[in-house]
Write a structure and sequence with these properties.
Blueprint lengths: L1 H20 L3 E8 L6 H21 L6 E8 L4 H13 L4 E4 L3 H17 L6 E4 L16 E3 L4 H12 L7 E7 L2 H17 L4 E8 L8 H9 L4 E4 L4 H13 L4 E4 L7 H5 L7 E5 L11 H11 L7 H16 L4 H8 L3 E4 L2 E5 L6 E2 L2 E8 L14 E9 L1 H4 L12
Parallel strand pairs: 1-2, 1-3, 3-4, 4-5, 6-7, 6-8, 8-9, 9-10
Antiparallel strand pairs: 10-14, 11-12, 12-13, 14-15
Helix pairs in contact: 2-11, 3-4, 5-6, 11-12
Length: about 400
């Protein structure tokens, strides 16, 4: 018996040693906009993945395997994304990273599911780090899709829980991009406000073309004329930066509750005009209670002269590294199974990849745009002298949502 045990232990050690010794470079295909109006956001997020991948490689998070990020410009187009996916498949890359645009995410998730069904042994695993249409982890959930961000309903649950306590909010205007995500934000805002603050009036609602509007002044005039005291918007990228700029130019004094106020270009557009008036709901703020992740943000800033805000990149690499280590494999089939129900310690606390729908469960933050004060706001954005003050950290259960996902797992 002792001989058998020794042999088994020796075999396990040799297997793990071989896993490390034969450590390959695992390529992760980044499919997101690197040209056009949304390119600044895409480039920032590409660099974010690269920075965390380099950090994981230096510290050997995966126990041998190394990460390499391979970029593909999808021009924010579902069709261009599918063309990029063909290149990914041809190059033998078996991991996809994507986040900008739920319309893109829905197309990729469907195409990857079909590819995997038709090509056993060549499966691709899809990490969605920012596309937050709730359908992706509900009616259109898929085994090979894992969402690292909180979905838009989760964020709206957190946002309205906070907003409902402010009795000064009386007249709300909903302003969003006209595609699945923007429509989901507007729908949830109406439902959740009616439940939590039925006295609040929705005084206006607009849906505008995604990444096409260059002058938001006409929209801002409508918002102002409606007697708006609060704008709720899921806009991101240039669509939020230009909206905020137009509001500033028009002297609109309404408060803005955003999903993406901390993303590229928006801080500069706000400047002093956004002080105390612009908030965002998200899964992390560098100005948190203990400044967890500040070292990552400062390292990123030093290397890229840019701000680190897509913390899902840290969670994603941490989860993949843990799965590689646990399974002693980089095979997406084994890794997908390991990711189900996985818990990791990320920069915002514990993040769990819920098994039932592959939706990450995590704490959420509400933060407000204020001047640096060297105390609870030490770090600014885009060298503006302003940064985000954490208003509240909501425990994971507060924003958790039920799921209608009927997950079909491979045999």
């Amino acid at each position: 018996m002792r001989t058998i045990l020794r042999a088994t232990a020796a075999g396990a050690v040799l297997a793990f040693a071989a896993f490390g010794a034969n450590a390959q470079t695992v390529k992760l295909a980044f499919i997101d906009p690197l040209s056009g109006l949304m390119a600044p956001v895409g480039q920032n997020q590409l660099n974010s993945w690269r920075y965390i991948a380099d950090l994981a490689n230096q510290k050997n998070w995966a126990g041998g395997p190394k990460f390499e990020i391979v970029p593909f410009d999808n021009k924010l187009s579902p069709q261009e994304s599918l063309n990029a996916l063909k290149q990914v498949i041809d190059q033998g890359i078996r991991y996809v990273l994507q986040g900008n645009g739920s319309s893109v995410a829905l197309a990729l998730a469907d195409a990857i599911a079909k590819h995997n069904e038709r090509n056993p042994g060549k499966e691709i695993l899809y990490l969605n780090y920012a596309a937050v249409d709730p359908d992706l982890t509900n009616s259109k959930c898929d085994y090979w899709h894992f969402r690292l961000d909180a979905n838009s309903d989760m964020k709206m649950e957190a946002l309205t829980t906070f907003l409902a306590k402010d009795k000064n909010v009386k007249n709300v205007y909903l302003f969003n991009q006209n595609y699945s995500f923007g429509q989901a934000v507007a729908k949830a805002a109406k439902e959740y406000l009616a439940r939590k603050r039925p006295d609040i009036k929705i005084v206006g609602e607009d849906l505008h073309p995604l990444a096409q509007v260059k002058d938001f002044a006409p929209y801002v005039s409508k918002i102002k004329a409606a007697g708006t005291d609060t704008v709720i918007t899921g806009n991101w990228g240039s669509d939020l930066a230009l909206l905020i700029k137009a509001a500033k130019d028009a002297g609109l004094t309404a408060n803005f509750y955003t999903y993406y106020g901390a993303t590229t270009g928006v801080p500069t557009a706000m400047g002093a005009a956004g002080e105390e008036r612009v908030k965002y709901v998200g899964y992390w703020n560098v100005n948190n209670e203990k400044f967890v992740g500040a070292d990552v943000a400062m390292g990123f800033n030093k290397k890229y002269k840019d701000d680190y805000y897509t913390m899902a990149t840290y969670t994603g690499i941490a989860m993949l590294a843990k799965a590689f280590k646990e399974t002693k494999s980089t095979d997406p089939v084994k890794v997908a199974a390991a990711l189900e129900g996985m818990k990791v310690q990320s920069l915002n606390g514990e993040v769990e990849m819920r098994k039932s729908d592959h939706q990450a469960q995590q704490p959420l933050y509400i933060a407000k745009w204020v001047k640096l004060n060297g105390k609870d706001v030490k770090y600014d954005q885009e060298n503006t002298g302003y940064g985000w003050k954490t208003e509240v950290v909501l425990d994971t259960y507060v924003a958790a949502q039920p799921t209608s996902c009927q997950m079909k797992r491979p045999k």
